[in-house]
Structures are given as structure tokens and as C-alpha cells.
Amino acid sequence: MKITIEPLAEGAEEEIIIRSDTLDPELMELIYALKAGRSRLTAYSGSDIVKLAPSEIYYFESVDNRVCVCCEKNVYEVKQKLYELEKTYERSDLLRISKAMIVNVSKIARLAPMMGGRLEAALDNGEKVIISRQYVPDLKKKLGV
Amino acid sequence: MKFIKCFLGFFTNITTAVLALVAVISINNYETVTAYLPMQVLGAAAATALPTALIYNTEFKTLKKFIVYALIHYSILCVIMITLGSAFGWINPSPIGIFFMCIYVAIVYAAVFAISYIREKKDADKLNKALMERRKR
Predict the structure, then answer these.
(1) What CA–CA distance (Å, rounded) separates B131 from B137?
(2) Which of B72, B120, B132 to mutate to test the interface with A (most CBs of A within 10 A)?
(3) So what's the architecture of A25-143 in CATH?
(4) How far is B25 from chain A (nearest CA, A)?
(5) Residue B120: phi, psi to the nearest 5?
(6) Based on the structure, what is the number of domains in chain B?
(7) If you measure CA to CA, which chain A residue comes closest to B126?
(8) For B72-124, what is each residue's pLDDT tens digit?
(9) Helix (H) or strand (E) holding A66
(10) Interatomic CA distance for residues A102 and A105, integer angstroms
(11) pLDDT of A80-94, one tens digit each?
(12) What are the boundaries of each domain within chain A?
């Protein structure tokens, strides 16, 4: 695929034009990833409000009816429910891995098998999360295995 | 559908492990091998695959819970196999016969656990390879 980047005229809005005869699944995936990548998530830490890009997110975790978003070093709270986040980021690298967790697949450094068909995912920041057996097929699908 | 798939997977693994064990045991005991044996092995494998699939579909959050479930599971399998073993004439329903049946169940249990672990390890390796390729892109 040829990629052309042109300088932006003064005052013009950034724009991505895709020239293709067919919108195959791979291309659709790219479009959704671009869209999701541009939208920033509002997260809270005490009185501070931060805007997070999906690429900064390591995982979402639901604890006691509160949803936390974990980044490389910091943890924030978000207002959305886990199922809402799952829906928002369904076409991105964020994948549901258990009833209480959504992980960014691109942050998984290594996977190891555990008892009972589960997988332990070691993330880039050194944290480890558990992938439930029932979500392992979704991960396989996401990685094309 | 998932449960049936899981049940069939365990049924296949258990049948393989039981047949291997029967083959080893019958080397010096030809007289114990009867025409009914294959059907008996299949029946025993089905009877033990059912609780195994049920247990397998339970989520274990901690290692402690997993060990407790594994012990309960092993006990259930021993009861099933002692009952079927007595009915099929595989064991004498005496303390020594029951003891040996518990040992055989433990051997099959360990073999099936090892087979499952090897499969899961292979899957994890494939996923790790896919993760690495994804990172290169």
C-alpha cells in the first residue's frame, strides 16, 4: 500500500483520504483503528482530569462498580461502564479478557498458560493480568491464530 | 455446544490415557483382556469425562480454589472408577483393590492434565509468535 503525506495548507484541517476499489476487512480494521486512535478518553484522578489516547491505555478494570483505567504507571477512574468501553473500542486493540477486565493487546509482552485453560499475560509495564478461558478464543481471533 | 466440545475433548484424552494404562497392565495379564473391554473403557471414559468437563467449565480465581476443586474432582473420579471397576470386574472390591484403582486414577489424571497442559502451552506459543509478528509490523 502506497502512503503519501502532503504538507497541510494554512488553516486547513488534517485529513486522511483512502483510495481503494474495495473496502476489505483489513482496510476497515485500519479505518476503525484510526477513528478509535483519534478519540481520547476522559479519565479522572482526584480533581485532575486527563485525556488518554487508546495507545496509552494498558487495561480497564472494574472493581466494586468503579471502572479504572491503568496506564504505564498511573491509574485513573473513568465514568463509563466496562461494556460501554468494550463497545466503543471493539474495533481497536482493546479486548475483553474477563468479566472485569479489558486489555490493550498491543501492550501484551508475553503469554503463559495457567491451570484450567487460562492464560497469564505479562504486560509491557511488568504487570500481569489473567485471561479467562472463555475469552481465549477472542484473543486467538484477534491475533489471527 | 462449547460444553459438548469440551466433553468430547476430555473423552478422547481420557480414552487414550485409559487404553495406554490397560495396555501396560495387560502385558502380563492376558486373561484379563475380554471382548467387552473396549466398550467398558469407552463407558468409563464417558462417565469420567462428564464431571471433568463440568469442573473444567468452572472459573478458578485462585490457586487454592483450583486445588480444592481438583481434589473434589479426583475423589469423584475415584468413586466412579471404583464403582465401574467393581461392576466390570476390573478390581476386587477389597481395600487393596480400591487402593490400586485410586493409584490408576491418579496416573490417568496426571496424564490427562499433562496432555491438556502441553496443548495449552502450544496454543500460548502460537499466540506469542503472533504477538511478536504483530509488534514487528
Answers:
(1) 10
(2) B120
(3) Beta Barrel (2.40)
(4) 30
(5) -65, -35
(6) 1
(7) A145
(8) 989 998 999 899 888 888 788 889 989 988 998 898 888 878 888 888 899 99
(9) strand A66-70
(10) 9
(11) 999 999 988 887 889
(12) 25-143
